Amino acid sequence: MSSAAAIAHDPVHAARALVPRLRALSPRIERERRLPLEIVAELASTGFFALCVPRSLRGEEAHPTTLIRVVEELAIGDAAAAWCVMIGATSGLVAGWLDRAAAEEIFARAPEAVAGGVFTPNGRAVVVPGGYRVTGRWAFASGCQHCAWLMGGCLVEEDGVSRPLKHRIPDSRMLIFPAAEAHVHDTWRVVGLCGTGSHDIEVQDLFVPRERSVSLLTDRPRESGPLYQFPVFGLLATGVCAVALGLARAAIDEFARLARSKRPTGSARTLAERPAVQMDIARAEARISAARSYLLETVAGAYECAREHGEVTLALRARVRLAATHATLSAAKAVHQMYQAAGSTAIYEMSPLQRYFRDVHVVTQHRAVAPATLELAGRMLLGLDTDTSML
């Protein structure tokens, strides 16, 4: 059975069904700083890593709002697992650009294999007959220990100099190689999202065939579906914010459970009976619900534009990034509210709230949802000249 067939009934329902299991495994995932291989196998066999792989390659080619909702549900159970699914799923986008034979080798022959990597061009790809010799080290390679294939962004060199594109912009490409060819440096010792295993990966003078290289910025996609006309970095940003939204949902639910039973020292009332607490949880619920609705509406509109016109306008691309950043910041504020309202209970390791607090504040540090995206959207709304190259 294909991965797509495995979740054809309802991928969001399938993600929701995994929440109790992921929640129970969260302490282990954080302690081991990676996902257990049995969970990776379950996530893969369910088809989540194939959400962005073309149907022609036995993938799901899902609507972006489906990706958001799947990642959000998984994050309610465990944010690290959701993050790894998001990275694996969005990495599958490259299948829509790759040479057909290379795409089949990576994504179709073993559809449950996981791909991942880093877009940032921290590597060097020297042009040689038939391909490239690649050297580089990339940080933040989430899930690299369970991937079958890895990719790294590289600046292309030819005849000893950087190969320029139009307007003298350096040629930057993604180079894809078997994970076994890369060295993993144990660098992921962090305050939150500990279980993503986002270590550094490195290759030295590795030959990569030309067919396993792609530029998501300058190449035209081979696949014609609207998913492959949707802005790549916009899709990544929506996946990032989906993790934050799931964490906010988990924090509100956990606080509600706590508030119904906790009686602060010297008080005859539970937290839930305090008007200030009632307002806190109401504000948090409204905040994430509004941000989530804005996100889903904006993403759906951009996808419809891609379906109808074969591209997404710059204005819609900017709004997707704005909605993603707004949702992330709103989710972080909601988690902070719940953490603060819980009092000293939230500081203990046994409290999930302290983990949600740490995790969401790692999510907010991702460049895809950085405050600079608010500036970019604001400049466009004001009609000012704006660098839109990363939209």
Count of structural domains: 3
Number of helices: 11
Computed over alpha carbons, the radius of gyration is 21 Å
And the CATH topology of the largest domain?
Butyryl-CoA Dehydrogenase, subunit A, domain 3
User: How large is the share of residues in beta strands?
Assistant: 15-25%
The percentage helix is 40-55%
Name given to the CATH architecture of the largest domain:
Up-down Bundle
**What series of H and E elements makes up the topology?**
HHHHHHEEEEEEEEHHHHH
Helix/strand class: alpha+beta
Q: How many extended strands?
A: 8
Biggest sheet character: 8 strands, mixed
Distance between the termini: 36 Å
Shape: globular
* Low-confidence sequence ranges: none
CATH superfamily of the largest domain: Butyryl-CoA Dehydrogenase, subunit A, domain 3
User: Mean pLDDT across all residues, rounded?
Assistant: 94
CATH level-1 class of the largest domain: Mainly Alpha
Annotate the secondary structure layout.
Layout: H1 3-7, H2 11-32, H3 37-46, H4 64-77, H5 79-91, H6 100-108, E1 115-128, E2 131-141, E3 149-158, E4 161-162, E5 172-178, E6 183-185, E7 199-209, E8 213-214, H7 232-261, H8 275-309, H9 314-341, H10 352-363, H11 372-381
Parallel strand pairs: 1-3
Antiparallel strand pairs: 1-2, 2-7, 3-4, 3-5, 5-8, 6-7
Helix pairs in contact: 2-4, 4-5, 4-7, 5-7, 7-8, 7-9, 7-10, 8-9, 9-10, 9-11
